[in-house]
Amino acid sequence: MMPMLIHGGPDMLGVPLHDLSTNSNACGPYAPAEQALREADARHYPDPTYTELTIQLAAWHGVAPARIVIGASGSELIQRMTTAVAVQAMASGAGVPAPVWLPKHAYGDYARAAHAACLSRTSVAQVANLIWSCDPSSPLGQGDDGLVDRVANLKPGQTLVLDQAYEPLRLEGELTLDSAAIDRIWRFVTPNKSLGLTGVRAAYAIAPCGGSDLLERMHALAPSWPLGAHGVALLQTWATVDAHRWLRECRAILRAWKARQTSLLRDAGWKVEPGTANFFVATREKVAAESARERTFESGVDMKSCLDTIRRQGFKLRDCASFGLPNHVRMAVVAPEVQDALMRALKSGGWHESPLCHGAGHQQRRRQELDHHRAVSLLRQPGPEGGPLQGAEHEQQRTGGDGRPSI
Length: 407
Hints:
Elements (H helix, E strand, L loop, with lengths): L17 E2 L11 H9 L11 H11 L6 E4 L2 H18 L7 E3 L6 H9 L3 E2 L8 E5 L12 H6 L6 E5 L15 H4 L3 E4 L13 E4 L6 H8 L8 H10 L2 H27 L2 E3 L6 E6 L18 H10 L2 E2 L1 E2 L9 E4 L3 H13 L11 H21 L27
Parallel strand pairs: 1-11, 3-4, 3-5, 5-6, 6-7
Antiparallel strand pairs: 2-8, 7-8, 9-10, 10-13, 12-13
Helix pairs in contact: 1-8, 3-4, 3-7
């Protein structure tokens, strides 16, 4: 069965007033990039070989132009790479689907592309034809602790792709690979989040040093003009000293904002997962018991109802269930005034009063459970001496709040 297509960003309600679901740079957009987009010549096709752009990107990274592969987006490159590996395995005479290794929690397009190309999932990276990594990762925004070893253990015929969508907004630490290791792998670069312009789709790949049949296949599988004039303008603006000076300033601001935002959430009873990026994953702390005589009845979280409620208040968060993290949300770091508004929305939705957010169905079950336990208490009381009733005094009606995570 094809994995579901789930993303953050605009939905049937339109563009969220406060979109924390896309991991876009909250300091953006980058003004010179906006200006370049306004001035882009959409009357004509770009150069189909993207000669000037390729030379600029190669010079920026200090690699040969032949190693640059232009893509319509990071997602398009994921699909193209997966197809290229599958076709290459078929051409080599392999009688079984090529195996692919994915991180435990990862961007859904890796699995979706693998399914479409009939690759088989494996839990052992050493036997995979295609190995995916994202550092900082999505959704957790953490470093890939096993990346160095996986690169060191690469064998002929294996391809490791490092998705660097969030590298420019890494707020702590650095990539653990040295230059020799980097030259052995593929890298995907997608600057639109960093520049605060997610509506412009544009990306490129940097192939390993030395070239390969896979590089030729990646070029062969590309559609004509994968980038339009606006995508070209975005990448040209990205590969400049000024853009990266601005990003350095953004990272300093985002560090302070992240510290404040996570502190507010922890004070309100949230557990925030560690991470190094401009986004993070959080969940509500669970309370095991309300008192010694009455336990809470946490039969589940109606996360969809919670997220829908907060969405109607203008906030969109990213539900992490599709990443394999149910009852967690991912949210981007935002400006202090947006943080304050978010906390008010969460509180009004009930997220601060309850360890879990419950929808109407769960509230009804909760009332039924309380009625049942009250009846049991009445059956057991009073004793011969006429003791007080037990259990019913401490009931607490739970109300649900809603919050929606952003990508």
